[in-house]
Amino acid sequence: MSLIPGLTGKASVLVCGASRGIGLTLCEALLARDDVGRLWAVARHARTAPALVALASEHGERLALIDCNALDEAALARLATETGTTCPHLHLVVSTLGILHQDGAKAEKSLAQLELSGLQASFATNAFAPILLLKHLLPLLRKQPATFVALSARVGSISDNRLGGWYSYRASKAALNQLLHTASIELKRLNPAATVLALHPGTTDTELSKPFQANVPEGKLFEPAFAAQCVIEQVGRFGPADSGSFRGWDGERIAW
C-alpha cells in the first residue's frame, strides 16, 4: 500500500510533535519505508532531542530536524519558510500535538475545577496549534496528492460523551474536529487530491495517558509503535473522498 492514495514516487513528510510518544515512533516507522524520500521532524527542541539526534545520525539527509514552538504563530511561519526552501511540496503532514494534564492543562472532573488558564492551555495546543500549522503549510500542500492528519481523540465526540469530565480536553478536541472538517472543504477547492483527516490513535502508553491507565480496559492500551502503524495504515487507506472525516485507529468512523 502506498503511503497516501495517489502517491507514485517518494514522499516528502513532515511530523509536528516529533520528539516523543507517537510522534517519535511515527518518525521511526516512516523512515523505515522505502517510499519516504525525506522527513522533517518538528518539535520545540528537535535539534537537541536525543532520540531524534540518534535517528538523524542513522538516516543522514533523509531526516531534517527543525526547532519550532507550535504555540508561536511566527515560529510556524518560519517553519513553513524553512521547509519550503528545500521542499516545494509536502505529500503528508502529521500533527501529533496534544496535551491533557501538562503545560497548565487539567483533566477536570467537575465544573468546580474549570479554570480559564486550563481551558486556554488545552485549546492552544489541541485545537489552535494544529490548524495554524495547516494554515502556514498550505502553500506546500497545493499540488497532488497531499494529506494532512491531526491526532484527535474519541472523547472529543459530543454524541459519544456518556461519562462527562475532562471538560477542556473534550471541548478542545471537538473544536479541532470542526476546524479540520472546515479546512477540508476549502482544501477540496484548492486541491481536489487533498485529504484532511482527524484520527484517534487509541489510548496509547505515553506521558499523556499515564495518570489514567488504570481505568483502561485490558487490551485497549496500545504501545506507541502499534498506534503509529495504525495511523500510517489509515493514512494510506483514506483519500480525498474521505476528507474531513473523523476516524479511529481501526478506520471506523467516529460520530461527531
Description:
By secondary structure, this protein is α/β, with parallel strands linked by helices. It has one domain: Rossmann fold (3-Layer(aba) Sandwich). Helix content is 37%, strand content 15%. The chain contains 6 helices and 7 strands, in the order E-H-E-H-E-H-E-H-E-H-E-H-E. The chain has a 7-stranded parallel beta sheet with strand order 3-2-1-4-5-6-7, sandwiched between helices. Helix 4 links the parallel strand 4 and strand 5. The protein is globular, with a radius of gyration of 17 Å.
Describe the secondary-structure layout.
Blueprint: E1 11-16, H1 21-31, E2 36-43, H2 50-59, E3 63-67, H3 73-86, E4 92-95, H4 116-137, E5 146-151, H5 167-190, E6 194-199, H6 224-237, E7 245-247
Parallel strand pairs: 1-2, 1-4, 2-3, 4-5, 5-6, 6-7
